[in-house]
Design a protein that fits this description.
five-stranded parallel beta sheet; alpha/beta; Rossmann fold; PGP_euk; 13 helices; globular; chloroplast; six-stranded parallel beta sheet
């Protein structure tokens, strides 16, 4: 059902310049269109200025001039498995005002179908085509570069995944062969004299996503594929340093998994999740959206807000996730959103 409703990916974006890896993504973001002059909720990003708090005038400006809202999920829409207060009413208000909504998450553990189930379980009416996950982005990127094909012929190339079911489900939707992932959970390396691990020579890409079952076997296998298989791609769903698996503390994020492979291969990955512009480029190309119509709403400065600012979008930070007001307003922070609020539902209150 999801595949039928979302459709194929080929109409979204041809990667072209994205082949060069993580640095080429950041470089390409300068081509996403010129920035608008600062509007009432688009203050300069100088660290010498405070970030304005959402008030009635700024909210009215946003509703009047923004046509498309992109929301991060964890910390904005929900925390763990709990819906944040006022979110349904706020989304309903924006939809009633004719706004288009998208939900973009760096969490690769679920596919879009998996996230649709989560939205539904929380009582939110969200359409499949409104959901973008970094697991989807990895599969879409591979399709955009023509992975596994020479002309109309299939080459037999496959993907090795470090990650959970979300990546594999998205690859399945595009009929991209893959190995590893959950199947390699629990595998151990026994080091006897002269022992070697042999990788599949047909692996043409390694995708690294968040993996609670990561182990030395997976790290070594991915390392061999990247180092020894000619032209093997190295793709990271994201490089977040930490994540919030529980509300009690920060946990090591996908950056730790990606870092292990970077360390052993001495290669930089192509990053497809935020703050890389890949998902935004795909969205804008697929749905003919102009960047000056969009506001990015998130709870992380180094992914959500940077994602928006690099693309020239309006940005709003909410304090219902990982970023404190103290950190936001600190002189050491040089990533400044256009405005901020305690949580998304403040758009109803002001």
């Amino acid at each position: 059902m999801l595949a039928a409703r979302v459709g194929g990916l080929s109409g979204g974006l041809r990667a072209g310049a994205l082949r060069g890896g993580a640095h080429s993504f950041r470089a390409s973001s300068s081509k996403l269109g010129s920035r608008r002059p600062p509007a009432p909720c688009a203050m300069t990003s100088s660290v010498s200025l405070s970030v304005p708090k959402l008030d009635t005038a700024r909210k009215d400006d946003i509703v009047a001039n923004v046509d498309v809202f992109i929301f991060d999920c964890d910390g904005v829409i929900w925390r763990g498995d709990s819906l944040i207060d006022g979110v349904p009413e706020t989304l309903a208000m924006l939809r009633d005002a004719g706004k288009r909504l998208f939900f973009v998450t760096n969490n690769s553990t679920k596919s879009r179908a998996g996230y649709l189930k989560k939205f539904t379980s929380l009582g939110l009416d969200v359409q499949p085509e409104e959901i973008f996950s970094s697991s989807f982005a990895a599969a879409a990127y591979l399709e955009s570069v023509g992975f596994g094909k020479e002309g109309n012929e299939y080459t037999g190339k496959k993907v090795y995944t470090i990650g959970e079911v979300g990546i594999d489900e998205e690859l399945d939707l595009l009929n991209i062969p893959h190995i590893g992932g959950p199947e390699d959970a629990g595998k151990r390396v026994t080091l006897a004299k002269g022992e070697m691990m042999h990788q599949d020579a047909d692996v043409g890409a390694v995708v690294v996503g968040f993996d609670r079952e990561v182990n030395y076997y997976k790290i070594q296998y991915a390392t061999l594929c990247i180092r020894e298989n000619p032209g093997c791609l190295f793709i990271a769903t994201n490089t977040d340093a930490v994540t919030h698996l529980t509300d009690a503390q920060e946990w090591a994020g996908n950056g730790s998994m990606v870092g292990a492979i970077k360390g052993s291969t001495k290669q930089e990955p192509t990053v497809v999740g935020k703050p890389s512009p890949f998902m935004l480029d795909w969205m804008c190309n697929r749905y003919n959206i102009k960047r000056d119509q969009i506001m990015m709403v998130g709870d992380r400065l180094d992914t959500d807000i940077l994602f928006g600012k690099d693309a020239g979008l309006r940005t709003m930070l909410v304090l219902s996730g990982v970023t404190s007001e103290e950190l936001l307003l600190s002189p050491e922070n040089d990533i400044k959103p256009d405005c901020y609020a305690e949580q998304l539902s403040k758009m109803l209150d002001v």
